[in-house]
Amino acid sequence: MKHLLVTGGAGFIGANFVHHWLRGHASGRLVVIDALTYAGNRANLSEIAGHSAFRFVQGNIADAALLARLFEEEQIDCVVHFAAESHVDRSIAGPDDFIRTNVVGTHELLKAARAAWCRDGKWRADVRFHHVSTDEVFGSLNTDTSAFTEATPYSPNSPYSASKAASDHLVRAYHRTYGLPVTTSNCSNNYGPFHFPEKLIPLMLVNALDGKPLPVYGRGENVRDWLYVEDHCRAIEVILERGAVGETYNVGGRNEWRNIDIVRHLCELLERRFAADPTLARRFPKCPAASGQRIDSLIAFVADRPGHDWRYAIDASKIERQLGFKPQETFESGIARTVDWYLSHEPWWRDVLSGAYRR
């Protein structure tokens, strides 16, 4: 696989994957297609804009003509499919975009790959369609229920997770019906650089730095498994290189945390950074830590979201056993790196918050 098409490559996980892949692969070609909706940001790719092996195309994965042209022009032999609407709250408020992108868009991409790679019933050698999915398709776990495995029945509870479940089924069907060489990964909650600040960790960070409330659903007791985004990128690379066609792999961090504990830990980390670096108080005077106050005073419990899943947990034994993959970051090391990235990339998240990145 030498010519990758990465969908949604200007988004959070996609952009991290693009950086990761180009650092480790000196030859070949990587083409990003991204519609640059609210979550897509060209600034996420600015450091590699001039890379000789890189091309960016602004476009929608539901555009069949554009996909056909890209497969032909770039001789694409591998698709890594990140493009998705992914925020549960937004899916509750407006599910239509989730169906269009996650279901219809995935179907158009599958059709394009089949048309490009299969001639007269014969498939090109060494091609792969990798589909990136989520643990949310499995539904919700109780506190004492075993973690999700690849055999866990699907039970999505939001328009977002239902649309991702539908896309997973389409990918599987194209493999079983037509022979499309596919792999799928279902990951736990990611965090790290370029994370759009509507999600829990980046939202808490930027709000704390600006002295704004830290909104926590319910009592903050919902549990999530957290995976540092660079580890997720490594897992996808391993699946592309050694994963078996037709297989699904769960990718998790083995880091289950209650939401409220995450928020309190972030507050403590920021307080330590302020204590160690006096310049932070001048840069972020509205943060309670700038005046020696506790940041967790900003925590504000808010009404729970409709259908809020209680707990997600990934059993990643299969990818560990079959492909030898394990995360390199603990949650403590990964979250410290994340805090430091946001402190050193203030212009990036300021542009996101102001909407300047879209102009």
Summarize the structure.
The chain has 359 residues and is α/β, with parallel strands linked by helices.
Q: What attributes characterize this protein structure?
A:
Rossmann fold; NAD(P)-bd_dom; alpha/beta; NAD(P)-bd_dom_sf; 12 helices; single chain; 17% strand; 359 residues; three-stranded mixed β-sheet; EC 4.2.1.46; dTDP-glucose 4,6-dehydratase activity
- The whole-angstrom Rg is 20 Å
Q: What is the CATH architecture assignment of the domain at 3-195 and 226-255 and 307-328?
A: 3-Layer(aba) Sandwich
The top level CATH class name of the domain at 3-195 and 226-255 and 307-328:
Alpha Beta
Number of helices: 12
CATH superfamily of the domain at 3-195 and 226-255 and 307-328: NAD(P)-binding Rossmann-like Domain
Q: Would you identify the regions where 5 or more consecutive residues have pLDDT less than 50?
A: none
Termini separation (Å)? 35 Å
Name the average pLDDT. 96
Number of strands: 14
Order of neighbouring strands in the sheet with most strands = 3-2-1-4-7-8-12
Shape: globular
Question: Helices and strands: which structural class?
Answer: alpha/beta
As a percent range, the share of strand residues is 15-25%
The CATH topology of the domain at 3-195 and 226-255 and 307-328 comes to Rossmann fold
Helix content range of the residues, please? Answer: 40-55%
The succession of helices and strands, N to C, reads: EHEEHEHHEEEHEEHEEHEEHHEHHH
Protein name: dTDP-glucose 4,6-dehydratase
Family: Belongs to the NAD(P)-dependent epimerase/dehydratase family. dTDP-glucose dehydratase subfamily.
Keywords: Lyase, NAD
Cofactor: NAD(+)
